[in-house]
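hey team, just a heads up i'm posting the complex here instead of the shared drive bc the drive is being weird again. everything in one block, sequence lines first with there labels, then the predicted structure for the whole assembly after. its two chains so it's a bit long, scroll down
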Amino acid sequence: MKFRGCIVFCLFLIYAYSQENKGELSGNFNLESQYYLEDTAIGAASVDDKLRTNAYMNINYRHNNFLFGFRYEAYLNTLVGIDKRYDGQGIPYKYVSYNKNLFSITVGSFYEQFGYGLTLRAYEEKLLGYDNAFEGVKINYKIINGINVKGLIAKQRNFFSIGDGIVRASDVEININELKEKWLQKPTNLTIGASFVSKYQQDKDPLYKLPENVACYGGRIQISSPKINVYSEYAYKINDPSADNNYIYKNGEAIVFYSSYTTNNWSIILNAKRTDNMSFRSDRNAKLLQQYINYIPSFVKSYTYFTLSEYPYSSVVLGEAGGGIEFLYSFPKETFLGGKYGTNISLQYNRYNDIKRNLPSDTNLVGIKGTYGYSSSLFSISDSTLFENIVLEINKKHNKNFKSNFIYQYTTYNFDALTGIVGHGYVYSHIFVYELIQKLNEVFSLKYNLEYLYTRQDAGNWLYVGSELSVSPKWFFAVNCAVNHNNPTISDKIKIYYLFSITHVKDATRICLNYGKQPSGILCIGGICRYLPAIYGFGISLSTTF
Amino acid sequence: MKASVYIAFIVIFISCDKIEPPFKETNNNQNIVDTNSFYNSQKILIEEFTGHRCGNCPRAHEKIEELKGIYSNKIIAVSIHAGFFAEPLPPNYPNDFRTNVGNELYSFFGVQSTPIGLINRKKINDTYLINYENWSVVISDIITQSPAFLINVTPSIINDSNTINAKVIIKVKTDSINNIRLSVFLTEDSIISSQTDYSHSPTLISNYVHNNVLRASFNGTWGTEITLINKSINDTVIRNFTLNVNSLWKLKNCKIVAFIYDPDIFYVYQVEEKKLFDK
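-- predicted structure starts here --
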């Protein structure tokens, strides 16, 4: 694997430098380094190697109709919280792509997505340690204007190697407006799509007859106009016993719906989703974040504020049903509530329940290995709440120097079901966030954060105070302090986590140094989450693009 | 071009296998080898990292029983209690099943989460650690191989039940391996103690039956080096090991597990198990 990567890399260099008509080189580099100190009081464990660094560099080279590229990655060793099986270094991502007119071929590594991804989505997210890149062949062909067809056959990345399963997939997307020139002028745009994905993995299990070829197919429709946007997608998967679903033979299905209506001053967003047994991986025995073929999106708005990211909602691929509604209104300027600069207000409500599971046809118990597991109709919902929240957000510019943001959120969080750690039950929390941005002059500006999370369950209450001084355009100094109190799981009355950071930005390069303590928590990006253990120590991050 | 696209669609579309009940294989019996020929067959060592406060670990224990149901005594398990979830936490979890050997193996193989295990210490995709869902797949690859060694273990109790003696006879069945290491462990079955089980309500089971619990090693974490230069096929090597008895162990439930592995890649060539008091 690493050897093959080096060959591609060498060929690429030879080709690039042998050309008189030099092409275009681009890329980026990122480095995250952490020196770990032990602090048993916050649960920050000692690390044998003390200093760990994760770095990667992407290089892309375009020449005429060809695009070459690779990514070198080093996990020396993997940062605490990321899967340790990444330990090592190599070139796991390398590709050559040829594009001409309406046709393109990619060999090597690539990412891809059909619709929202209910049948197929490969992408990477370094902060999560998520990378399900394909390695194989992909063809993209525009048959006529408005009809685009994709086909691929590939295996998937599994840390620094390639997984067992083979994925075969095709997708057709038709943009109705593009079919005829006169339809292009119409204000309403209609797009439909269909996809078919099949995976192959040998059955070596001595006990069960496992399907070696598992198919998943779906359809989607999008209608968009200046005011209204509607999207819906449905996917169906045949029997796919796996480690995720405890090797049951039930079919899976998922449906998502998203719509929005916007006028001058207000807009409304409605979304709904139901997922039933839709974990779809190219290796039926894979776990955690490895080798997902598909992706179930999350419609619950996520925030970067400390307290609001404490109890996030991620998609529950084995079973969830629910939706959300969000109402946004802008009070016009020069009104009582709008003030001189206007005021934005948003009110949203989300609720997700587990799906209802009835007895299957082949046994009198639910979820038993080697059976159909359970039965469930498309719109059946159980009484068990997974997640519920109501959020009020008010965003206001007070004058030319002051801007503020206020958020209140009430959350019901089914800790056992959402984290897989049984025994916590439901966590009910009230969260208040107030952020104030003050522009002192053309160079200096200040940002203050005051947050409070109140709950009688789990880790108790949190007070968070953050401040950041920006010295435009190059320097940022930040001091944050999180205080945990009334935590029923620890003997200490309060625990304090402080973090200092200095950031320097120059052109396309950003360097950040930090020192302090970070509490354990759950990091969610796009509905995929991972657990972050508590950390104490020095950190450095560096990123640049070229 | 259009035709090829349509053909690709059709080919992909037929690529699905709909399985109808019964979902269990009907030819399992062929996997179960006659117990009389055990001495001559390749056996499997499952070193399972576990802990009494690990709520998903009973799933791995069940997997071991399931595999023993398929492969009978060709499966030899060692349950290594180590890591955070194995720490005692009185009053509900008063017992400490951790051992120095187990702690060292846990650390050396880089265990991050439990349950997880080693299958003959085979390295797959740059890791020795294999999720219990994958054990059967790895085992099905190894178990049909011809054994490079055969092992015979003869236990005995000496010095008024204060010392266990293990006599290990190795029969060489290959001429391509010159150096091996031999490890001899003591395990214990039927220990009644508490265990967390996330699929049980309440999740704390106070009278859980712990099997295959690693108690000690006769010859350290990494065993004894044995050189096979000048040994021919069917030659034998005999080694004797002793271990002082700990009063916490119930000897009638104890077993000796002896295994041979490669000193460089750690791959376990063969393993054998014998009860201290075989009826």
